[in-house]
Amino acid sequence: MRSKSPELMSEIKKYIEDYYLQNRQSPSTTKIAEAVGIARGTAYKYLVEMAEKNMIEYDGQEIRT
Fold first, then answer.
1. Which of 1, 7, 9, 30 fits a 20 to 30 Å CA distance from 17?
2. Domains and their CATH numbers in the chain
3. What's the pTM?
4. What are the contacts of 9-14 at 24+ separation with CB within 8 A?
């Protein structure tokens, strides 16, 4: 498995935090993917790894930072 980019993880986390502040809800995986320029499946894999590293809380549906 390829290692995930720490820079992209930081970009995803910042997007999630900013989106939540503006919308009072977490963004969808599709919105995250579009915002950072990656495929939805790739965004999902990043979210899972970020959760494993305790950068976010993610249960496959809801994201919390």
1. 1
2. 6-64 (1.10.10.10)
3. 0.91
4. 9/46, 9/49, 9/50, 9/53, 9/55, 11/36, 12/36, 12/43, 12/46, 12/47, 12/50, 13/50, 13/55, 13/56, 13/65
